[in-house]
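Example 3.
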Amino acid sequence: MSANLRVKSSEYIDETHRVSFKFNGKTYYGFKGDTLASALLANDVHLVGRSFKYHRPRGIMTAGSEEPNAIVQVNDKTNRTEPNVRATEVEIYEGLEASSQNCWPNVNFDIGGINNLISPFLPAGFYYKTFMWPASFWEKYEFFIRHSAGLGKSPSEKDPDIYDHRNIHCDVLVVGAGISGILAAKNAAKNNFKTLLIDEKNELGGATIYQNKEFNKIDNQSSSDWIKKEINGLKNISNLEIKTRTSVAAYHGYNYLLARENLTDHLENKDKDNKVRQRLLKIRAKKVILATGALERPLIFNNNDRPGIMLSTAVKKYADFFGVKCGKKNVFFTNNDSAYESALCLYNKGIKVDAIIDIRNNSNSKIVKAVKQVGIQIYWSHTVVDTNGYRRLNNISIMKLSNDGMTVTGNRINISCDCLGVAGGWTPAVHLFTQSGGKLKFDEDNNLFLPNKYPSDQISVGSCNGNFNLNEIMKELSIKLKEFLKINQTDFDNIVIESEEETSKRNIWLLPSDKAIGKTKPFVDYQNDATAKDIKLALREGFRSIEHVKRYTTTGMGTDQGKLGNMHALGIIADTAGVKMGELGTTTFRPPYTPLTFGTIVGRNVGEFFDVFRRTAMNNWHIENKAEFENVGQWKRGWYYPINGETMHQAVQRESKAARESAGILDASTLGKIDIQGSDASEFLNRVYTNAWSKLAIGKCRYGLMLNEDGMVYDDGVTTRLGENHYLMTTTTGGAANVLGKLEDYLQTEWPELDVYLTSVTDHYATASVCGPNSKKILKKIIPDLDLSDENFPHMSFKEAKINNIKCRVMRISFTGEHSYEVNIQASFGKALWEKCIEAGKEFNITPYGTETMHLLRAEKGFIIVGQDTDGTMTPIDLQMDWIVSKKKYDFIGKRSLYRSDTMREDRKQLVGLLTDDPNIILEEGAQIVSELNQNPIQMLGHITSSYFSPNLNKSIALAVVRGGKDMMGKKLFIPMEDKTISVTVANPVFFDEENKRLNA
Amino acid sequence: MKNKYSVFSLIKNAFSDHENWQRAWKDPSPKKEYDTVIVGGGGHGLATAYYLAKKHNMKNIAVVEKGWIGGGNTGRNTTIIRSNYLWDASAGLYDHALKIWEGLSQELNYNVMFSQRGVMNLAHNLQDVRDLKRRTHANRLNGIDAVYLNTDEVKKFCPIINTSPDIRYPVLGGTLQRRAGTARHDAVAWGYARGADEMGVDIIQNCEVIGIKRNGDAVEGIETTRGFIKTKKIGVVAAGHSSVIANMAGLRLPLESKPLQALVSEPVKPIIDTVVMSNAVHAYVSQSDKGELVIGAGTDDYVSYTQKGSHQIVEGTLNAILELYPIFSRMRMLRQWGGIVDICPDASPILSKTSIKGLYFNCGWGTGGFKATPGSGDLFAHTIANDEPHKLNAAFNLNRFVSGDLVDEHGAAAVAH
Amino acid sequence: MFVINCPYCGERDQQEFKAGGEAHIERPKQPTELSDDEWAEYLFMRKNIKGVQFERWNHAHGCRKWFNMVRDTSNDEIKLVYKMGEKPPLE
């Protein structure tokens, strides 16, 4: 049966444009302009989902982003699926598929509904009290709990959509485009403020465009007609930008706000491709005007959750705005006049309203009189005590309220109805205000939390500031705008407003039933199934703080974040505990206001843009020559260069031998390079390195070790004196940025008297490192003019040279122990330099090698790698590098820390070499070292930091840090692996060419 | 004697509409004097009081809390529990805690939902691999159940991780501790409170410490917003506010309090059955029993007591999450929040006597204190009761910052070479 | 996220800056003269104030200059910024 519950057409619905969509596999039709909720209601579908805990049938409760019940999975089993989407926010499009969640096998018959039957045994926090026996069984209980919890399903495929970010700086940001927001934005923009107006809906006007038509008049027109003209006028204001379908998610300090702009969710799937789906607006506003409106409150009574029970204004909005009647037999239940407005609206559209149940004694407002006139029955001083209908409301029972509102009297009156519009008053939407750090005050007369103290340049206007009367809203707005924007007048200072004052109010947070509370189900948090009795139980058990009650009962922790029920929870706590609500405070409103898609937060920072790689000038050559790459810090570095299907081990063995036997070439461009200039440059280096620098001659290079102030090795590298007051420092690849930052820090804050300037030149130079016995011959070929004799250009020295007229810097330094040159050239010539070296080296079988071979070669020489052989706990003494720690210098960074009792201990871990008894066994880096195998607990002495098979020594070698290792030369130690124990002997960490003969070979 | 919690008591109480449950803990006013006052009613503080009463036969104990119990980092963390630490001292401390976790629900008669679903740490570069292997070897020899996994094994244990070799931070391997997992954070505070209350500990909420009274080198009591309380022993377990209390006593601590943020997604059906941590990209994720993805972000670099951090931290974390779990792109963030974490220079805690007699500090847990809650409480109770540390917390003294014997759990410095 | 008024560049987003901890802890001129306790005091001990704190910030992604800030850590309100070497305001 496909019912049609459309009433008189609405101007917001395009009835010429029929849209088909599927819900739970069945095809339905709606119109362009419908939300999924309005289209389902038009088809008389109220049962949309099942609740979280008890799996109770639930329907559509609201018409907005506060919806707790009608949440669905859209486009299931596609790569655009999304769980937990509010049907009230989905604009339908051709081909939309939506399905109910949290039910099996289907929403009409859900096995999980058994939880409702056993609900007496599942009070708040029941899981803290059970599932403890036997102790090992929790994971088994948990399996079932996890599978019955959760709502929708996570997507399981890669997201096809694109997300984007935009930074916006504006003078005035207005959040919410109801009447207050529209007028605020218009007046700001017209007074030369660059203004941004944002609303979460797809149309402007808020409630004014469809509310209070009959009784609110502006300049003698209905308020809705008047606001429509205002909206039209906005288009012509030049410095006003308007964003609809945009929800402000978070309001941080310093007027920094995040908003999500929805761009394609309302389009047909085929029109979504290659477009930005959502954009995160990062807004920095000089001034913020919050006009976020108010949310209608429900009333808390027994079984107040059945499909068909809706907010009164939602019933009205569906009729008025979407042209849909929510029920055939409509009843309203209220504590204020707004339900009368809804009732009258329905009546005027020819929809039958059977009764209004009002907890108040009476009201004499015009609108109530009008309702009386049309003959709708009103039950004053009555409350709903129960409702019936499992999958859809079919009747309610009402009883007379006692004067104190605590009990009911008389007999039940049953009223048959399939839609109950509930009006519990209004809760100002102060979420963003409190997120920004604003403090609330409680208005005891009206039971409202209102903005009190603004933490930044912002104001709240309209109903989010507790103002619900149109006349007062406009008066207050005019005054506030003039003060806030420092303008003399607004363009609505003189308009004439006719609006009605609420005359009578009565608030009861928890309405009584004729049944004992323990036998009732008055839901406070619909989605999480938290009831008023759960709150009372929590209080009984000693949970006093609102945060405790919230966490114990899960009130307010659903996907709607308790937008509807939080106030009632507070009210019930206050009433039960006998305290004033203002003293209770509220729970924290945590961002985001409505859930924010991860993809939107991430924007374009996905894939290669997540963290962009840095690549050297020679990178393409490495790719062309089939290099395998290693990620080092931000860099892509050549790791090894396999040929003819070599394994990594084979390639590294070949590269290592070639570098020692003839020639190798390494791309060393990634090392950090810092240009240091100034008359105090030498003194500066004296202070930052452990060794002395004053006497380094111009044109010479020196290795330096840098410590943290706590004495631990921080970085190392070779620094070259280019001139009297000019040095070039190199750092490790990963440490470059941190070293520069640290040096700047000392220079600016501790030693401002030094005349020193630091500049990073890492990216400016490309570096080819040519090593091996034939390196000199190769260099001669590329730079024929340079005198490469040991006398003119000895190890640890530097020359400027030219290659084809391009200036370059050549350092004769070595990290491999071989005769070696590092040629630095302007980065744009890096690849040409490299190719030139390769070409020149061809006759010597020059072999490109990567980081792995570099590591092996330096390990043969016992050179450390900071970060591999050190871990932030090694001093230079621990590394047996005492030689580099100046005893003469008065001070350097970290020096004092070397002389503390524990850093001077002899039994610290020290760097040693290890040789395996079986030379073919390669130790695992990271393996632990012991001296005794039969201890319990076993005493670990240290670990393997570097380990390789050395092709040049034809045996396995390793570096390790070992407690007291310095004095263990020749001692046998053990490496207990999972499946075997490997015996090793402590050795000198310099395994190869101890006399450094090869440097000058 | 309180109600014993069990399925039978639930059924029994159902028949009286749950009207007869007793308070989990009382709400006493402070007495004039206690033998020991614990400052801070988080998990660590409540556990300390519980073990003082239970194991050290101390009866006259108060826990004073400026807000509501469990409202600080106990109720704000991502609930990861593991003990696969590198250094012997840390492994001893955290595994002591893990062993208590394994029987905690039964001990407290309160289901803390300790779920041993395993914790996986991922390696994304070659140095990560070395570091994780080093840690795994050390764990094995320390009797901790960690194993090293290659990329395929990582994928098998958690199929939704993107293990493609072509991504920015490819998964090169990982470690797995199967005994590790998560627990229900609030329940830990509530369970210890209930247990301590039953043994006579006064749990005093809304009672803020505003001064520490000293007589020479010894403490005499605390000034609070609810009056002066005399005591000879004060155990401060105030996390992010430790320095505030220390300053009252004229002490300085090696701590900085920084914002740490976390977030949850909307709840969905089970999609990830373990806890996955990635230090290199700073992304931790697990799924709560309710179905929310629980994601831990990093700390900001400035001191703040606002419980708010900057958006760029959250954005950076989600960038990393989507790098490793691209299927989560359409999931939505439901809630984000911040805590204040007290960070030591070596990323290890302080459980120590001080230079002032009768004043003890338990702080510096940084981003990872939740997992240690039971062990920390037990060892701190021992330290207070005996005026001497237990051998398992001896290394976590204040003097290490003077002598240089740090327990540096940062591990390797920066990525280098 | 704060807006920070760099004394050299003007107002910029916090993302451009790095925090550098408590200010006005001068590196001892003669570290070797200090006891281990005094050195530890310099190296590690911090006031870590809840309230108005003097601290160092660096315009890392801007002019790279270090400067001082007075900020209330209880609400993140920045009271003042001033250049390195300038005297801290008394209150």
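Chain B touches chain C at residues 241, 243-244, 247, 252-257, 300-306, 308, 310-312, 342, 345, 401-403 (CB under 8 Å). The longest helix of chain B spans residues 126-141.
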